[in-house]
Amino acid sequence: MEEYLNVSGRIFDIQRYSIHDGPGIRTIVFLKGCALRCKWCCNPESQSFEIETMVINGKPKIMGKDVTVEEVMETVKKDLPYYRRSQGGITLSGGECTLQPEFSKGLLKASKEMGISTAIESTAYADYEKIEKLLPYLDYYLMDIKHINAKKHKEYTGQDNKRILENAKRIAESGETELIIRVPVVPGFNDTKEELLEIAYFAQKLRGVRELHLLPYHAYGKGKYEGLNREYPMGEVKTPEPEKMKLFKEVIEEKTSMRCQLGG
Amino acid sequence: MKGYDKRKINKSERISTLVKDLYEKMPEIEASRAELLTQSYEKTEGEAVITRKAKAFYHILKYLPIRIRNQELIVGSTTIAPRGCQTYPEFSYTWLEEEFDTVETRSADPFFISEDTKKRLKKANEYWKGKTTSELATSYMAEETLRAMKHNFFTPGNYFYNGVGHVTVQYEEVLRIGLEGIKERAAKELEGCKVYDPDYGTKRRFLEGVILSCEGVIQYARRYGALAKAMAGREKDSRRKKELLRISQICERVPAYPAESFYEACQSFWFIQQVLQIESSGHSISPGRFDQYMYPYYEKDLKEGKITPEFAQELIDCLWVKLNDLNKCRDAASAEGFAGYSLFQNLIVGGQTKEGRDATNDLSFMCITASEHVFLPMPSLSIRVWHGSNQDLLIRAAELTRTGIGLPAYYNDEVIIPALMHRGATLEEARNYNIIGCVEPQVPGKTDGWHDAAFFNMCRPLEMVFSNGYDKGEIASIQTGDVESFKTFEEFLEAYKKQMEYNIELMVNGDNAIDMAHAALAPLPFESCLVDDCIKRGISAQEGGAVYNFTGPQGFGIANVADSLYTVKKLVFEEKKISMGELKAALEMNFGKGFGKEKALEVALQVAREVEKEGKEVTKDLISKVIGQVLEYELPEEQKNRYREIHEMILALPKYGNDVDEVDEIAREAAYLYTRPLEKYENPRGGKYQAGLYPVSANVPLGAQTGATPDGRLAYTPVADGVGPTSGFDVSGPTASCNSVAKLDHAIASNGTLFNMKMHPTAMAGEKGLENFVSLIRGYFDQQGMHMQFNVVDRATLLDAQKHPEKYSGLIVRVAGYSALFTTLSKSLQDDIIKRTEQAAVR
């Protein structure tokens, strides 16, 4: 058997029929562990690499499981007929898949071998050497750029954005994958025309990048914080109004050459 | 590649008016047909049955009151009141008399009935005592069959109490040669009959009956022509006057003569569709491939500049409204099983031509637009999907699905065509298939399919394995041994197999008995003359005149049986976590969750029987005492906890619907236990049995007669619907659900399988949502799924509609093989629909 099929990694969920994370019908593999601590994160159980217990609907559930590439592919390949019909495939999400580069590479490579389209959702907060390993097997890189201002970025995510912006340029320059920029629109953090435009200007300068997705903040993850016995950092912040989102899209499309999409 | 006119033509104001008028009042039962039928029958005593039928049909069409409703362009109404219904005492009538005082207030499909109508019907019905098909059928049945029906293993209620219907006649022949042409065909055949032919007598009477029936229909149409003319004379509005005059001219010509325009084709089609339902009370008379046989008339008119797409759309819309003007009153129990006033007139678009090319045309798109315009349950719009399907048509269909109307239903040519060929159809015939009623594929114009012949509850034989054939204190089935004595899962499975086979045999006996009764008492000359090869053979379809004859009873409860067998295999035999005795007791005690009235009654009956057996008197006091005790019965805490623990263990097992091979394989085998044995039986018309797998909406009322099952299903709750997983058990998303269902062998269930899926509107948002939705269907079909249909509505909306029905009178949901207005459904069926898992896309 091929070596890479035996590589193991840590995941906390696999979701089938996902239609908002890359083209077509996709299966999302959620990897555990992330370097960022975004205050609005809707998957708090993804942040720590450690296996932990989260209470869901009153019942404790173990979050985190070590599995091999082959085991994950058993599930992923079940939806092959739907990927074929919809040009869908696998999406690695998390957590941050570039923090488990060998495992992620294995999953992407195994998928390509089966003719399955590949995508990752990533913060790009990792050494470029690790990211680089994935690119030959990657069709879509859905990269979050949350803010251009370094200070604000650090305040809300716990990390500096320098490496992220640097990596964005290098990934774009590589020409190996289709890079799509995604922005979580979070009230009080970046929900102004100016801040979003700044990101759009940056994105437009990246080689080959044409698409920008604006993802409105939502509070669906709130219950999970309770389940992990953690305080919800966003308090009572509301989802941005659809009209407001539409306005952002219009401004970006007017001022830049980016195609702007609302939602994933 | 050819382009299509995909424009969405706007809805005309007329259509809104027609729809509004149609739904203004509760539908009403009328007495005219029953009276006219009886008058004719009283005068024809002693004549051949087929002659009596033809004369009665002629008489009814001659005198049935006629109406042209406000603004109508297509005319022909069976009742004075919109959406009213006539009665058919020749099939059965006692149930209606018994329900005279409750039919208006019952929960499923209520009908208004006036005191005068009750009186008139009572008088007409008197004649039919001892002469109905249901009485004759009963006399043909074996005692065990009657017993099995009493114990609810299956119910053949559909044809036991009503006409058969379930047919697609040769509409295209009427359009092409007119009824005059059909008459001529019969006359020619008659000429060829020799007095010494062995079948001279029956053939002659049949062909004469055909000719008389056709004359009746022609005359009926001309009555409308005269009425339209008279109305035009009185009409002040010049535009309407012109319309009425045109209607008058058209009704003079069709269906007697070949249709010469699209308008004439529409009107001709309608008369046929309507009078078929005057001839017999059978439902599911399905227009079939309307876009195919109507297209030549549209194309010609369009080319010659005689019609605009706008007017053609309006005519189609008018037809759609008319399809909702037909109605049928069923007995209260059947109404629960077919809830939603549905007549299941299935109309299908798309697919491939007889030559195997894509059949999409402009009308395919316009039919979808019409359903969007009228937004009513009829027709049961369907669409055929194949590898070469036009993507635009599928997207357009998905758009209609997204409105929440529950239409269209999607069918897979790649499974159905070979399935029909396996049953004897030629390649061309199979490619030309259409759907009858809910989901039943057949060759149009050549088939008497007896689809929907019975509902078979696959959970009941399973109960018999546990009770060793006992039900409510008496023997109700064969005895397969003490369940606790089984040493292996295979032994258990073998017992279930025997219980299944035994009850299937009895169902076949029941269906054949009813079949013979229809042949003897209810041959239908008009329907038969539009089904090959009745004219040539000189016998009605009911007597075996059709080229293809089937009987298609449907089994349901696969999900429950599959999950139940898995429980027994896993927990009792493999892991030995519970003993068979414990499981049996847990089922009897409904997993310690207490009992409702049904169980109390059941126990009371059991006690009563035992008391009677001892020769003692059963008093009212005793019964109420027993009922009281059952309702208040409290299990010892320890036992209750164990039963609940068992229930928890069962619920924690993997279930059908989550793409788990081990469970899904059992489901496949379970389905075979129904589909395979049926294949060996024959019906009195010289045809074969073929299984369907779908319950219409009978999973709710029949579930209410089924005790707790080892899948964790509580007593008297609905059985799983269609071939889908149990509501709430499929937790791995729609693709997993589809994959599980696709693992069944659909092709062998050539009477149709039904897979209901509920989608949340957000999962279909935007162009991308539609595309992914179509991909989901195609992915399921690529794996040999047969049929798929959707409810696109959120749970909150349905819950609110239950609370405030007045706000949701137009809310349409997919029930089974059809859609219905949500607020007209009974509470329990509403609950069942709400429970079906809502598949939202995962965020």
Key phrases:
heterodimer, A: 264 residues, alpha/beta, TIM Barrel, 9-stranded mixed β-sheet, two-stranded antiparallel sheet, 11 strands, globular, B: 843 residues, 6-stranded mixed β-sheet, 51% helix
User: Tally of extended strands of chain A?
Assistant: 11
The overall average pLDDT of chain B, rounded, is 93
Biggest pleated sheet of chain A: 9 strands, mixed
Total domains of chain A: 1
In short:
The complex is a heterodimer of chains A (264) and B (843). Chain A is of the alpha/beta class.
Outline the structure in words.
The complex is a heterodimer of chains A (264) and B (843). Chain A has 264 residues and is α/β, with parallel strands linked by helices. Chain A has a single domain (3-262), classed as TIM Barrel (Alpha-Beta Barrel). In chain A, 34% of the residues lie in helices and 25% in strands. Chain A contains 9 helices and 11 strands. Chain A has a 9-stranded mixed β-sheet. Chain A has a two-stranded antiparallel ribbon with strand order 3-4. In chain A, strand 3 and strand 4 (59-63) form a beta hairpin. In chain A, helix 1 (69-76) crosses helix 3 (101-113). Chain A is globular, with a radius of gyration of 18 Å. The relative contact order of chain A is 0.14. The mean pLDDT of chain A is 94. By secondary structure, chain B is α/β, with parallel strands linked by helices. Chain B has a domain at 451-542 and 554-594 and 635-754. Chain B contains 34 helices and 18 strands. In chain B, strands 1, 7, 8, 11, 12 and 13 form a 6-stranded mixed β-sheet that branches. Chain B has a 6-stranded mixed β-sheet with strand order 2-3-4-15-14-18. In chain B, helix 17 links the parallel strand 3 (380-385) and strand 4 (409-412). Chain B starts with 12 loop residues before the first helix and ends with a strand. The model of chain B has no long low-confidence stretch (mean pLDDT 93).
